[in-house]
Amino acid sequence: MQLNSIGLDVTKSKSLSKDLNQLLANFQRYYQSLRGIHWNIKGKRFFDLHLKFEELYTDANLKVDEIAERILTLGGVPLHTFEDYIENSKVPVGKNITKDEDAIRLIVESLSELLVIERAILDASDEASDEGTNSMMSEFITQQEKTVWMMKAWLAEEI
């Protein structure tokens, strides 16, 4: 087994970089959808939701940077074109969403998809003894589970 300069198996690090690039692509599309609903939301809840969506896209933007930097730390190259993001992502795309419930449902669907990817990366990073990636995924999962719960509560739906 060949180790990289941070003490991780080179082969497992390359595999994790690939998985993290998939997460990066999905986060970029999620971020763009959040920007769109932030800009286009209408209705009586505009002020509250406009601020909440800004909070969410700011957080997503920070996570995008963290993911890209982790890919680099593992020796990979982060995806960085819209073409790459479209090709490597599954999160739903929100287009011209103006209604509050549609926006919240899009967020829940997107986070649910991100959580699936993050749990798979968590398992792989655990197997690779990659505490850096493992810790990042644990933090993301904890935050996003809470956001899903809050969004579902706002919709008056069960988790």
**Secondary-structure element order, N to C:** HHHHH
CATH class: Mainly Alpha
Portion of residues in helices? over 70%
Number of helices: 5
Strand content range: under 5%
Instruction: Kindly report the CATH topology.
Output: Ferritin
Number of strands: 0
Largest sheet: none
* Poorly predicted ranges: none
Radius of gyration, CA atoms, in whole angstroms: 17 Å
Protein name: Starvation-inducible DNA-binding protein
Pfam families: Ferritin
InterPro entries: DPS_DNA-bd (IPR002177), DPS_DNA-bd_CS (IPR023188), Ferritin-like (IPR012347), Ferritin-like_SF (IPR009078), Ferritin_DPS_dom (IPR008331)
Domain Ferritin/DPS: 18-156
Overview features:
Ferritin; 74% helix; mainly alpha; 159 residues
